[in-house]
Amino acid sequence: MSGFSPAFERLGAALAAVVLQQQETLAEFLPREDWSADLTARTYSSGGVTVRVSLLGSYAARERTWLWGWANPQFGADHPAVAPTLSIRVLGERLGIPEFTTPEVDLSWYEGPAGHGGELIAMAAGGVLGGGGYIGAGYDGGSAYLHVDDPQAPPAGWDPVPVPRLVSNAVSLFPREPRLTLARLLSHHTIPYRETDGRTEVLLPGGGRAHAQFDGLGRLVHWDAELSPASL
Question: Which branch of life, at top level (predicted)?
């Protein structure tokens, strides 16, 4: 494989802004200090906070490959930390996403803005599972990616102010469909919206309105949020 599949790129575009916002919320909740993990017990501890996690997979820096937890001989599909993630593979089979069904994904071709291609697979996988976000836990030779599956990890709340930044950052990673990126972020927070040619009109909670403008290439070029007094 050289390049991500169209199905993976579309899914990534749909989930990226939602995931990035949740990652910011997780960073505020979970200190990134000296950490330890017990995958059999499904726990990750850092800075005095312990959360329940599952194992998505790992990225090998030298080989530049992503290995799913269910394909890793040290774990496998029946491992307590892996079993909760198997719905990702099921979705991959249903939607034809080879990145979700290939045991070890070659990412040596990736030269994009993310640190490595495994980060984007972790983002998409974490977005499919929802929950509290994902953690990149570095080890000698690469990083393991853990999904936070713990109700104590707070969900990201709606805020119109960071929308253009979230969408812009998401599109830099998954540029395929910027309007889908915004639409999915709005839908995730159950914010009503209406799309017209090059424009998305949004009805904000409390009665305010926002307008998103896209250029001829589909890129978000303007976001204007008018909050009502009741929402302030």
Answer: Bacteria
